[in-house]
Design goal:
mainly beta, Immunoglobulin-like, Hypothetical Protein Tm1070, Chain: A, 3 domains, 8-stranded mixed sheet, 6-stranded mixed sheet
Amino acid sequence: MFKKTLIAATLAALSTSAMAVDVTTGSTTTTYGSEALVSGVAKNDYTELLLGTPTPTSANIDLSTVKLTLGAEYSVGDTITISIAGGTFKQSETFALNSTEAVPGTTGMSVGFLSATDTTLLFRVTEVNGVTDGQTLVLDKGTYVPTTTTPAVGGTDATSNSIKLNSTAVGTKVTISALAQTSTGLTIDSSGTTDSFEIGSVIQEHKYVATTKLNADIDVADERKALAVSGAVALSDTATLTYTYDAAAQAKFVLDGSNDVTMTVNGSFTGFETGVTDATNLGKIAIAGTNATVAADLLSGKDLFNNPSSAGTVGFVFTPDDAAATRVVLNTSTYSVDAVLETAAAQKFTYANIALGELALNGASENFGYVPVGYDAVTTQFEIGNKGSVDGEITLTAFDTAGNNYSAVLPQKAEAGKLTKISDADITSAFVLAGGTKLKLTITVNSPASNISMSGYSNRGTTGRMAISATTN
C-alpha cells in the first residue's frame, strides 16, 4: 500500500505545472483588423493570416511566432500536441518543431511531425541529445535556422504557419496550448498557468465614440422653432465623435487619405434644411465644419471629408434658422450617424447607428388627430391638468385639410395645481379662423411633462360627447 501511494504521488508530481510545456516565453502575439476582414479587404481563408507576428521590427529577432520551452526530460517516442482555439490550422501545410540549439541533431532534440487536424498538431520525439529540460522548440513550416548572426529586419529565418479565424468579430481571441506525453501515455504536461498563450486577437482599427451628445430641447416657449439649454435660448447644439486609431498587425484597413469618410446623420432635418434645392429655411447641420447635404425627404444629411490621421474629433453642429420669416417648427427626433470608411481601391466599411443623442421638448406635448373647430353645431373643448408647481405657457400648432399651417400662443396659462380649459372659441380666436374646419392639432405646455395631462372631446348638439384621440410626442 505504501509503495502504491509513492507511485501515485510521483505520477501526480510529473503532472504539475513545473513539468508543463511553456508556450508563453518567446511566443509572439498579433492583432487582426476586423474592418478589413468583414469588408473582404483581407481574406480569412488561410491565404493571408498568419500565427503570431511573423515580421520582426528590429534586428536579431527570428521569425518564429510559437515557441515551446520544455520543462522535463524527454525520451524518444514521447509526443507533443499543439492545440489552437479560436482558429484553425491549414492541414495541408508543412508543420515542424525545430530546436533552437546551435547544431540541431547534435546538441538538440529532434521532433518529427505525425498528423494534423483543424485544431491540433501531433509531433513525436525522434532523437534526444543531452538535457532537454529548458530547451526551446519553434513551430514553423520547416525553414527555421537558429540565429547565429544578426538577421536583417524582415528576414526569412522562419516562416509562420497560416491560420483561419473562427470569427472576425471584434474581441475574438486565438490561443495556443501544448500537451506532452510519454510514449506510454503518461502526461508530462498538464493544464496550468504556462501552457496556454493568447497568440492573436481581432481588434477594431478605426473607432468612433460619441463623447458629446445632443442635450438641447426644442423650446415650446418659442413656438418650437428654437433650441433651449437649461431654459435659456441656444443658438445651436453640438454632438461630437472622438476618433482613435489602433493599427492592426495583420488585415489592415488603410484609408484612402483623401475624402475617405462619408458621415450620414439620420433623423429629422425639418428646420435644418440648408442644402436642399430651393430651401427657404436656413437652419443647418454642419458635419466637420461643412453643411450637410440634406436629402429631399428631410430624414438624413451627409458630408464627405478626410478622416483624422490618427486621432481627432468630428463635430455635428445643429443650428436652427434665426430668420423669423423662414423659421419652422422643429421635430423631436433621435439622431444617429453612419460612418463609411473607404480605401484607395474603393473598398468600404460602415459603422452604423452611432448614437448622437436627441432633441426633445422642454415641456409636455400631445397630438390630437381630428379636431372640428368653428362649426355652429359642434362644440370642441380640451382640458389640461397641471399637478406640478410650475405654470406652463400653452402653444397651439395645427394644419388643416387644405394644407394651411397655424401656430399661436394662448393668453391663458396651464396654471399649477389647476385644470385649465381650452374652448372652441379659444382655438378659433387664436388661429383667426373665418369658419369651420378640421385640424390636426398639437397642444404643447411649457411645464415638466410628468406633471401635465391632457384630454379633449367634441359634442354635436345633444348627441353626447365624443373623445378626441391623442398621441404623445
